[in-house]
Amino acid sequence: MDMKMMLLDMLKVFCLFIAFTLLFYYGLRVMHAEYEHYHRYDPPEGPAVKVFTEEHSFFERIHLFFRLGE
């Protein structure tokens, strides 16, 4: 009888584990579907200012890279 109760408890824990795993998985799928079409990199609206106004050559960039140590 003791072994039967232990197997029943293990089955309950296994079923709970499967249920919560499925709940977590489908929760992640719902969140992904919600944010899939969220555009983080849309062009700014309003009085936005461009940060870089001049284009540097490759050698100027590499010089700056080595000078700043990045």
Structural description of this entry:
By secondary structure, the protein is an all-alpha fold. Helices cover 64% and strands 0% of the residues. It is built from 2 helices and no strands. The relative contact order is 0.05. The mean pLDDT is 86.
Question: How is this structure best summarized?
Answer:
With 70 residues, the protein is mainly alpha-helical. Helix content is 64%, strand content 0%. It has a domain at 1-37.
Helix and strand topology:
Elements: H1 2-35, H2 58-68
Pfam family, one: DUF4227
InterPro entries: DUF4227 (IPR025321)
Protein name: DUF4227 domain-containing protein
**C-alpha Rg, in Å?**
28 Å
Catalogue the unreliable spans: none
Helicity level, as a percent range? 55-70%
Average pLDDT score: 86
> What would you call the shape?
elongated
Please report the number of helical segments.
Answer: 2
Main pleated-sheet profile: none
N- to C-terminal distance:
69 Å
H-E string: HH
Number of extended strands: 0
Structural class: mainly alpha
Q: How much of the sequence is in beta strands?
A: under 5%
InterPro entries: DUF4227
Pfam families: DUF4227
Protein name: DUF4227 domain-containing protein
Organism: Virgibacillus pantothenticus
